[in-house]
Write a structure and sequence with these properties.
It is a single chain. With about 525 residues, the protein is an alpha+beta fold. It has five domains: about 60 residues, no CATH class; about 100 residues, no CATH class; about 140 residues, Aminopeptidase (3-Layer(aba) Sandwich), CATH 3.40.630; about 60 residues, no CATH class; about 110 residues, no CATH class. It contains 24 helices and 13 strands. The strands form two sheets. Strands 4, 5, 6, 7, 8, 9, 10, 11, 12 and 13 form a ten-stranded mixed β-sheet that branches. The N terminus is likely disordered.
C-alpha cells in the first residue's frame, strides 16, 4: 500500500499538481495522520522530483513544516554530536527519569571539593543541582553537561558513565537544519525523475561488476558535512549506528550512480577499528537527501551487509539501489561474495518476515547456504513463477529465513569463504597466544607477541610508523601469530607488512583491498580456525 501511495503521489506532485495538493491540504486543517502522509509525500518529492515546480514547492513546504520532537536515550557519542551541532535544541527529559543514581555517579566526577557536602546532602535533586550549576551559562542542561565532559584523556570513562545513566533526551528538531524536512547534503544539480523509478537490473551480478564512472574520496571538510547528514538522518528516526558514530571524516567515498543518486561509504576512525575485519557504513542519497543506510563487515573477499530504506522512500527503487551499493563495495575493495544474515529477511524480525524480504534478496541472486533450504526456495520460486497469486506462508518464510544467504560473483571461489564464526574463533586463538606469552601483565604479553610477529615478518622497527599504525599492528598481531607468518615466502611477508600498516593508516579501505588479495593469510587462518574447531 505504501508503494502504491508513493507511486500515485509522485505522479500527482508533478508540476502544478504539487502546488494544488499542498495548498488544499494546508487550508482544510488536515488531521495528524494526513499531515504525516503529506510530510512523507513532500519528502519523497524532494528526493525524487517529477518536475522542477514540484521540487521547489516540496522544498518550500518542508521549510515551513515543524517536525515532531524526538524523544530518545542516545549514546554518549550521539549526545555529544547533538550538543555540538544542535546547540540549544536538546534537553534532558527529566519527566522520564525515575532513578538518578547512575546520573549522580557521573555528576560526582564534576564536583569541585567545595560542593561535595551540598550535593551529597540529599536536599538538592540532580535536576536542581544542574540548574544551579549552569545558571550563568545560558545553555540547555544537556549542552552544559556535555560541555563539562571535554577531557580527552577521560573520554572512555565519560562514555561509560553517560551510557550507564541511560539519560532520556528530548530534541526539539522542528526548525533544526538536521530535521527530516531540512537535512540534506548540498548538490549542484537537481535531477528530475521524468521516467519514474529504476527497477531491478536484468543481471544484478553483471551490474555489480560494471565499472563506476566516478568513485571519489571527499576532502575532509566535505566528508565531515556528510558525516553530519548521516548522523542526523538516524537520530531524527530514533536510531544510531556504530558506523556513523565513529565515522572518519577523512575517509568518505562517494559514487555517482545516476539520476541524482549517490552512495557514500564511511571508513572508521583509526582508534575505533576492529582488529581483523574492516567495518564501514554507507548512506544512500537522492538529490542530496538521505533515503537509506546500512553497515558492512568486510573480511577477506566477502562483505556482510544489509540495506535499510527510510519509510518515506519505500516504494522508490530499493532493488536497484541495493545492487548499486554492492557495486560500490566491489569497486572499492574487490570483494566477490556478499552475505546477508537471517535478520535481514525474517529471522527474529517479524516485519521483514511479513514483507517477504527473503524474495527481495532471492531475486537479486542471493541463495541460502544450507542445501535443504536452497531446495525449498527453489520449489517456492517455481510455484510463484507458475502462479502469480501464490504467496509463501509465514511458516515457510520462517524456514527460508533460518540460514544465511550469499550472493557470489562469477570469480568467487568456495575456498575464499571465511566463515563468520571464525572471526570469534580467531579471537579465541588470540587469547591463547597471549596467554602463552611470558609477561607480568597482559600488556607485556601483547608487546611480546607484537615483537615476535614483527620479527617473523622481517620488520626490524616500527619507529617510522604512526601512532595509529602501531596501535593497529599490536591489536591484530595475536591473530596474525596464529597463522605462523615466519614460514611464509618473502613475497607473502612483504605484502603482509603493507597490509598491516594499512590497518592503522589514513584509509582502512586500502587494508580491506589488500586483505582481499592476500591468499596466504586467508588460507592459513582458515586452516588454523578449522583445526581449532576439531579440538
Amino acid at each position: 500500500m505504501r508503494k502504491d501511495y508513493h507511486a500515485a503521489a509522485h505522479s500527482l506532485l508533478a508540476g502544478r499538481a504539487a502546488i494544488s495538493i499542498v495548498r488544499h491540504m494546508s487550508k482544510k486543517r488536515p488531521s495528524a495522520k494526513e499531515l504525516r502522509r503529506l510530510h512523507s509525500t513532500l519528502c519523497f518529492e524532494r528526493a525524487f522530483p517529477g518536475s522542477p515546480t514540484g521540487h521547489r514547492e516540496a522544498v518550500a513546504q518542508l521549510r515551513e513544516h515543524d517536525d515532531s520532537p524526538v524523544y530518545y536515550s542516545f549514546s554518549f557519542e550521539v549526545a555529544r554530536w547533538l550538543a555540538s551541532r544542535c546547540p540549544g535544541e536538546v534537553s534532558i527529559d527529566w519527566d522520564e527519569i525515575d532513578d538518578t543514581s547512575r546520573l549522580d555517579e557521573l555528576l560526582t566526577r564534576l564536583l569541585q571539593p567545595s560542593e561535595d557536602e551540598y550535593f551529597d546532602s540529599g536536599s538538592v535533586s540532580s535536576q536542581e543541582w544542574i540548574d544551579i550549576a549552569r545558571a550563568g551559562s545560558g545553555l540547555t542542561d544537556l549542552d552544559w553537561l556535555m560541555g563539562q565532559l571535554t577531557f580527552k584523556t577521560l573520554r572512555s570513562s565519560w562514555s561509560q558513565l553517560y551510557d550507564a545513566a541511560d539519560i532520556p533526551l528530548v530534541w526539539d528538531s522542528g526548525c533544526s537544519r538536521f530535521s527530516k524536512s531540512r537535512n540534506a547534503f548540498p548538490v549542484d544539480v537537481i535531477h528530475m525523475r521524468d521516467d519514474g523509478m529504476r527497477g531491478r537490473p536484468r543481471s544484478p551480478k553483471q551490474e555489480i561488476q560494471y565499472p563506476l564512472d566516478l568513485l571519489e574520496k571527499l576532502p575532509a571538510r566535505e566528508g565531515a558535512r556528510l558525516v553530519d547528514v548521516a548522523m542526523a538522518s538516524l537520530a531524527v528516526r530514533h536510531r544510531e549506528t556504530y558506523h556513523f558514530n565513529f565515522a572518519n571524516s577523512k575517509e568518505v567515498y562517494v559514487a555517482d550512480v545516476g539520476e541524482g543518486v549517490a552512495i557514500a561509504v564511511f571508513g572508521l576512525l583509526p582508534g575505533s577499528r576492529f582488529p581483523l575485519e574492516c567495518t564501514m557504513g554507507f548512506l544512500i542519497l537522492s538529490n542530496g537527501v538521505p533515503i537509506g543506510y546500512g553497515g558492512s563487515s568486510i573480511v577477506f573477499r566477502q562483505v556482510n551487509t544489509g540495506i535499510n530504506i527510510f519509510d518515506e522512500y519505500r516504494g522508490s527503487e530499493a532493488s536497484y539501489l541495493w545492487v548499486q551499493v554492492m557495486r560500490v563495495y566491489h569497486a572499492l575493495v574487490g570483494c566477490t561474495r556478499f552475505i546477508a544474515n537471517p535478520y535481514q529477511f525474517g529471522g527474529d524480525n517479524s516485519e521483514a518476515l511479513r514483507s517477504g524480504a527473503f524474495w527481495f534478496y532471492y531475486r537479486l541472486g542471493y541463495r541460502p547456504v544450507l542445501a535443504e533450504i536452497r531446495k525449498l526456495a527453489q520449489r517456492e520460486a517455481s510455484r510463484i513463477r507458475h502462479n502469480r497469486k501464490y504467496r509463501s506462508d509465514i511458516k515457510t518464510l520462517r524456514r527460508l529465513a533460518s540460514c544465511d544467504m550469499h550472493l557470489t560473483l562469477p570469480d568467487a571461489r568456495a575456498s575464499d569463504l571465511f566463515e563468520e564464526r571464525w572471526i570469534e574463533t580467531s579471537s579465541m586463538l588470540a587469547t591463547e597466544v597471549l596467554g602463552a606469552a611470558s609477561g607480568t601483565t597482559r600488556q607485556d604479553c601483547a608487546n611480546r607477541v607484537a615483537e615476535d610477529v614483527a620479527g617473523s615478518l622481517g620488520l626490524r622497527s616500527l619507529s617510522s610508523w604512526s601512532t595509529s599504525e602501531r596501535r593497529a599492528f599490536n591489536a591484530i598481531a595475536p591473530i596474525v601469530a596464529t597463522a605462523d607468518p615466519g614460514a611464509w615466502s618473502v613475497v607473502d611477508k612483504r605484502t603482509m607488512r603493507e597490509l598491516l600498516r594499512a590497518k592503522g593508516g589514513k584509509a582502512e579501505a586500502r587494508y580491506a583491498e589488500l586483505l582481499c588479495e592476500h591468499d596466504k593469510f586467508l588460507n592459513t587462518l582458515r586452516k588454523t580456525c578449522r583445526r581449532a574447531e576439531l579440538l
